[in-house]
Design a protein that fits this description.
Blueprint (H helix, E strand, L loop, with lengths): L1 E5 L7 E4 L9 E10 L2 H7 L9 E6 L3 E9 L11 E5 L5 E3 L5 E5 L4 E3 L6 H5 L2 H14 L6 E5 L4 H12 L3 E6 L2 H10 L3 E4 L5 H8 L4 E6 L4 H7 L3 E9 L6 H6 L3 E4 L6 H12 L7 E5 L4 H9 L6 E5 L2
Parallel strand pairs: 4-7, 10-11, 10-13, 11-12, 13-14, 14-15, 16-17
Antiparallel strand pairs: 1-2, 1-4, 3-5, 3-8, 3-17, 5-6, 6-9
Length: 316
């Protein structure tokens, strides 16, 4: 089968011909239809989980995906052949990822039944970004009418967070780099867009909202920028970063809430997202469709933060 894999940590991802995985006890083989690209994919290439989980090489990369159950192993009770599934296919050993024509995955992994109203390419764009956005918005504990600034709003997580916050009546301030991005953010529910090419975001927000805002989701800033932006918050406000640059002592000392955010993945969280999607309330921010052969170049783009919306790999 075709798969995108690396021979060693920090190696260049390549399309390889590798053996189709065999079914195992408690696991299922999924014929992959699509996979979603995330920044975590290149972090895995760099060895972010080295020492925490067992790895095998060639290491097939990829976490998010969607496909059809082709075979179930002994003891599997939740799924059967022909089921349409989606979720995070990461498991131990690392190296049996979603960027492949077939994946073997434990039944207990963070996978579940795909949304009925989503095509496979759309379903593959949901898991990591969708769960992260959903939990970020929940952790902020904001109320209808509150002001939420989203740094990095045009990416996958940001695009979901804009919508999920707007559905709760939260007024979203979305950062953009051009008119097309502003238009897309407005269509997803943002109240205000701020172009960071015009002037520093901090200055623009301070001018628009001198009395402060209630929350910040920061998906891109470095430590100094995140720290400065805390001064935009009203007393008791909340700020979270997904790039682990927060000084949580500083946040507490300023009477604020938040800090470094890590997604808690689960089939239940995926089921909740599937329900929202099937209700028609959530637009899946699928921006770019590529093939397995395009993945190495797409990973380079992701490393440099050039993604807009979600990039999905079409597999079958």
């Amino acid at each position: 089968m075709k798969a995108v894999a690396i021979e060693k940590f920090k190696g260049l991802p390549q399309v390889m011909d590798l053996p189709k995985p065999a079914v195992r006890k408690g696991a299922l083989v999924v014929k992959m239809q699509a996979a979603g690209l995330n920044p975590f994919d290149w972090k895995m290439i760099d060895g972010i989980l080295d020492g925490q989980m067992k790895h095998q090489f060639p290491m097939i990369i990829g976490v998010d995906g969607a496909g059809i159950v082709e075979e179930v192993g002994e003891g599997v009770t939740r799924f059967k052949k022909g089921d349409q599934v989606y979720g995070q296919f990461i498991h131990s050993p690392i190296g049996e990822g979603s960027f492949a024509e077939y994946v073997v995955v434990p039944e207990k992994a963070n996978i579940t039944f795909a949304p009925q109203k989503a095509e496979p390419a759309q379903a593959a764009a949901i898991p990591t970004s969708g769960m992260t956005a959903q939990q970020l918005v929940e952790q902020l504990h904001l109320h209808r009418g509150d002001l939420l600034l989203i740094y990095g709003a045009t990416g996958g997580v940001g695009s979901y967070a804009v919508q999920l916050a707007a559905l709760q009546g939260i007024k979203v301030i979305a950062t953009v780099s051009d008119g097309a991005g502003a238009q897309r953010m407005k269509s997803l529910g943002a109240t205000v867009t701020i172009n960071y090419e015009d002037a520093p975001i901090y200055e623009q927000v301070k001018q628009l909202y001198p009395d402060g805002i209630h929350g910040i989701i920061d998906l891109v800033s470095q430590a100094s920028g995140f720290s400065k932006n805390l001064d935009l918050l009203k007393p008791g406000g909340s700020a979270y970063t997904t790039v682990f640059v927060a000084d949580e002592h500083e946040i507490r000392d300023k009477g604020l809430h938040g800090g470094n955010f890590e997604t808690v993945s689960s089939p239940e969280a995926l089921d909740k997202l599937a329900q929202i999607i099937d209700s028609g309330e959530l637009v899946i921010p699928l921006e770019t469709k590529i093939t397995l052969e395009d993945v190495p170049e797409a990973i380079v783009a992701s490393r440099h933060g050039r993604g807009k919306g979600k990039t999905v790999i079409l597999i079958s």
